[in-house]
Amino acid sequence: MALLLLNNLILAFLLFFCIMAPKVSSHNRAYAPPSVARLTDLFGHVSVDQGFSTFFGGSNVKRINNGSMATLALDKSSGSGLVSRNKYYHGFFSAAIKLPSGLSSGVVLAFYLSNADSYPHNHDEIDIELLGHDKRNDWVLQTNIYANGGVSTGREEKFYFWFDPTAQHHYYSIIWNSHHIVFLVDNVPVREFPNTGAFSSVYPSKPMSVYVTIWDGSQWATHGGKYPVNYKYAPFVVSLAEMEMAGCVLSNSASAPASCSKGSASSLDPVDGQQFTTLSKQQVAALDWSRRKLMFYSYCKDTTRFKVMPPECK
Questions:
Q1: Sheet containing 52-56: which strands, arranged edge to edge?
Q2: 0.85 exceeded by pTM
């Protein structure tokens, strides 16, 4: 009898502990990030009204603060999105984003470059995707690159956050030029994709527009639909501020990179400026930190998915 009572007490304690213990969350990874140069301070902000038009879900797009900021929402009827009024061939692209709080599994916020409208069969794409992942890891960051329509070979890498991305705005940025592609979070590099010239077919090479979208990615983003969007908690609202788009802008009538204007090369030039063509020692150290501390998936290590690794992984 005493043994049975002891077992019951142990079970009760374990049940209480499981209920009361905090869930494992990316929010609990309280790392102090390395110091890095604040590239987001180098360029002026583009108002949403001036820089973007509605891509879809117009009723769920709200422009605020005289059009300098915007909110995008996902509800049961529709997601929503913005697209840049200009096309770019290389540049620095950034947005301060505050994600929806609460249970957000299946919700996907994408800040990305794409030319699928102009090249439907061989498009390029550079993605920052913020995934409402599951009940334990509220949000994760996924980066991806496609080139020349190679959508069957995604180049995903996934990272945890070292902060709560729902508490305030954080910077999400992309450098894209002929030298490399760099993904940054709060100016900390998390991934570099060099353009070595050896694998030009896998490097985005055509002018692209900038997009920001929120949508239901249940089947794709949550282990095959294991944690679908629960619209009981809708609408899911994301806040956008301090948009930056600086680089090589194509004229409305142009389709070739040679016709764009980027100004003179300088330290503030994201196409050929020194701060953007190579990573500094400080940035290299920060990149190493983020990949050691935060990355939990890389396509280059997925031997189940790839029997023969993509050439750049070698």
A1: 52-56, 80-84, 209-216, 107-114, 125-132, 139-146, 157-159, 295-298
A2: yes
List, edge to edge, every strand of the sheet that includes 170-176.
61-64, 69-74, 236-249, 88-98, 170-176, 180-185, 188-194
Taking only the tens place, the pLDDT of each residue in 254-293 is 555 555 655 444 558 898 888 899 999 999 999 999 999 9
**pLDDT digits over 147-177, tens only?**
987 666 679 999 999 999 999 999 999 999 9
pLDDT 10s digits, 15-53: 443 333 334 455 556 688 999 999 999 999 999 999 999
- What distance in Å separates the CA atoms of residue 21 and residue 38, rounded to the nearest whole number? 37
Q: Which of helix, strand or coil describes residue 282?
A: helix
**Alpha carbon distance 115, 110 (integer Å):** 15
SS3 state at 289: helix
> Hey, CA dihedral for 145, 146, 147, 150, is it positive or negative?
positive
Contact 185, 291 (CB under 8 A): no
Strands 236-249 and 69-74: what pairing? antiparallel
Q: What's 101's DSSP letter?
A: P
Structure tokens at 285: 């150290």
Q: DSSP string spanning 226-265? A: TS---GGGPPEEEEEEEEEEEEEEPPTT--SGGG-B--S-
Pairwise CA distance, residues 117 & 137, whole Å: 33
Rg over CA atoms, the chain: 21
Q: Among residues 210, 275, 208, which one has the least CA distance to residue 240?
A: 210
Distances (CA, A) of 192 to 83, 143, 157, 289: 25, 10, 11, 13
Catalytic residues: 125, 129
What region, left, alpha or beta, does residue 121 occupy, with left being phi > 0 and alpha being psi -120 to 50 degrees?
Answer: alpha
